[in-house]
Amino acid sequence: MSALASHRKSRARTGIAGMAGLRTNTPAVGFTTAALASVTLLSTQSANAAPVEPKPSVEEVQKKVDDLYRQAGTATEKYNKAKETSAEKRREVDQLLDDAAQRTEKLNESRRTLGNYAAAQYRTGAVTPTAAMLFADSPQDYFEQTQLMDRMTDRQRGVIEDYEAQRAEAAKQRTVATKSLEALTLSQKALRTSKQTVQSKLSEARSLLSKLTAEEKARLAAIERQREEEARRKAEAKAEEEAEARARAEAERKRLEQERAQTPSGDTGTGTGTGTGTSGDSAYATKAAKVLSFARSQLGKPYVWGAAGPSSYDCSGLTQAAWKAAGVDLPRTTWDQVKVGERIATKDLLPGDLVFFYDDISHVGIYIGDGMMIHAPKPGANVREESIYYMPIYGSVRPA
User: Which residues are catalytic?
Assistant: First the structure.
C-alpha cells in the first residue's frame, strides 16, 4: 500500500510539475501568436485600404482655384440670366392675373344679368299669353308688355353672346396664365440652382486656400505676381503699339493739313486721305469718356456676384452700369452683351470697348487704353485696373 501510495504521489507530482511547466510556457506562446495575428491583420488592412492621395502642389492649387472662380463666374452669369428671366416672367404673370381679374368681374356682371333675366322669365313663364291678356287691365297694356318682352329678348340674346365671348376669353387667359406660371417656376428653379452652384464653387475654392500653409501661401502669391508681371509686359507692348499708331495718325493729319494749305483756292486737290476723325468717332469718344468716368468712380468697390451697383458689382453688372451712364442700355449678362454693337479686333481696341474672356464668355471688362481695362475681377477682390492679358481673351465689342 505504501509503495502504491508512493507511486501515485509520484505520478501526481509529475503531473503537477508537467502542468506547471505548461503554465510557465503558455504566456510566451500566447503573446507570440497574438503578435503574429496583429501583424497579419494590419497587413491585410493596409493592403485593402484606399491609397492616400498626395497633397496637391501649390501650382495645382492655383490652377484649381482659378478654374473654380471661372466656373463660379459662369454660374453667376447663369444666375443673372435666370434672375432677369424670372423678373420678366413675374411681370408677365402679374399682368395676366390683373387681366384675368378684370375679365372675371365682367363675366360675373354678365352672369348676374343673365340670372336676373332667367328669374324674370321664370316668374312670367307661369302665366300663359291668354291668361296674361285676361288679367291685364286692358288689351292695350297687354300688347305693350308683350312688345317690351320682345325687346328684352333681343337684349338677352346680346347679353348671352357677350357672356359666351367673355367666358371663352377668360378660359384662354387662364391657359396663358398657367403656361406663364409654369415658365416662372422653371426660371425660379434655374435661379436657385445657379445660386447653389456659385456658392458651392466659391466654398470649394476657399476650402482649398484655407488648407495651404504659410509657406505655400507665399509661394502662391509669388506665382500670382509672376502672372501679373507677364500680363503687364503684354499690356506695355500693346501700349507701345497704340502710341505708334497715334503718332502715325497725327503725322497723317498734319500732312493733310499742309496739303490743304498749299492747295490753290478752287482746286480740290488729288489727295485721298480721309483724316483720323469722323463724326462717328467723335460721338463714340464722347460716350466712351462718360463710360470711363463712371467706371473709374467705382474703383475699389467690392466684387459681389449677382450685383449691379451701386455699392458692389459683378463683371457684367459693372459694364452694364457704366454704359448706362452714357445713355446706352446693355443686356445684363456677358452672353448677351457680346452680341451688342460691332465686333472689334484686339489690335483695334478703343477706350470704352468691352473685352470678353474665356471660351465660355464668362467675364468682361471695359478697355481704357494701353492694354489695360477696368473690371470687377472675382470674389474677394475690388473693382480695379488690370491688363487685358491677365486672362485669355475671347473677343471684343464696341457697343455704340
Answer: 315, 363, 375
